[in-house]
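Re: beginner question about structure tokens

> Can someone show what the tokenized structure looks like for a real chain? I only ever see the sequence side.

Sure, here's an example I had lying around. Input first:
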Amino acid sequence: MKKKITKIEPTKIELPKLKKVAAYARVSVDKGRTMHSFSAQVSFYNNLIQKNPEWEYAGVYADLGISGTDIKNRDEFKRLLDDCEQGKIDIILTKSISRFARNTVDLLNTVRHLKKLGIEVRFEKENINSMSGDGELMLSILASFAQEESISISNNVKWGTRKRFQQGIPNGKFGIYGYRWEDEHLVIEPNEAKIVRIIYENFLKGISAETTGKQLQEMNIKSYKGGDFGASSIRAILSNITYTGNLLFQKEYIVDPITKRSKKNRGELPQYFVENTHEAIIPMEIFEKVQEERKRRRTLGARGNRSLNTTAFTSKVKCPLCGMNYRRSGKRQSKYSTEIYYVWICRTKSEKGAKYCSAKIIPEKELQIASSKVLGIEEFDSNLFDEKVEKIIPIGDDLLEFYFYDGTIIKQEWHSHARTRCWDDVRRKEWGVQIKKRWEDGKYVKECKNDTCNC
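And the corresponding structure tokens:
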């Protein structure tokens, strides 16, 4: 009997696709057990994911010492979301809603976006799965509780901080250039104190923060954090009353515990001035002189900064169309003269062009002549102008409106003769001949008033 042999083809067994699982851990409170708690969370999720045969380990993302009220400062959380976008993760495990986010809006937006990507989020403590039918409802309710808990914690911290302020106790050991902390006291750092004194001396000599910053860079002097001194750092030193040996508490406050947005305290909350807490680097009378000078310069605007090339008209000529100040434009010259003159132009027009502002350009000489007329003087006097005139607003093509500090408003006509004023004798003679010829030919043409032509 002949054998019958049948070949049986192997069947391909489809193994179940492993789910790519990641975990997110966060510890925000700076306590003695912070590192222990952080390490425990990371270790727990490492073991949990790798022991499950249906899961593929996709990593543990962990933020240490970061608040959960705002996503933007959590680098690991943002990296987790980026990896989700790239399809590297199917499931996210996290200990609780408060670990994931205390901000209800951020939480729901993030979970909904992940749901659209087909990514499931599991909250261990609350036993919630974002893909389940009632998952989002439960998240909304519990996340609101988490947010309220965050606000409550913030209020408790504020209460404790203000109690310490009332007792003259600072809120932690803040860093400040010129001092170091020894136990609970600020002690002068001699080399840095010398630089602080230079900054104050320079300011009272009329040297700007920008110029002082360049000087310190040339001296290879570094700031508290090791970088170069910028103008903003120097201004902060000039306004810090700590250098007088006193402390002022609650100079700023948190407006919203969720966004952590802070605001300068301008009287909304009480401040606490604690005298003689440490040795002074700057005497109080010098500090007060500097504050008065800072106020004076702010009032004058750009004209208060002696390092800038300003004139009597700086910050005083206001554009009637866009509200910006006029600025002095570069040197100009008529082709018929070697004399240099300047014009004033709206800053918007200067930077963006006539498309954004069509305000009239005004030659500086015409501003001086018009100012002299309204002041009733023969020649322009910058000191008198500065003392009397608050601002000038150009109206139309040929009118200037002068506003005086005493409330007086005077309108004065002006006409642009900037180029012809610069003509030499030869050009004036040529022009006279041309005018005479035009009269003779019956084609009299008035002198050109266009300050941009080369006639």
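Each token stands for a local structural state, so reading them left to right follows the chain. The chain has three domains: 19-151, 179-304, 311-455.
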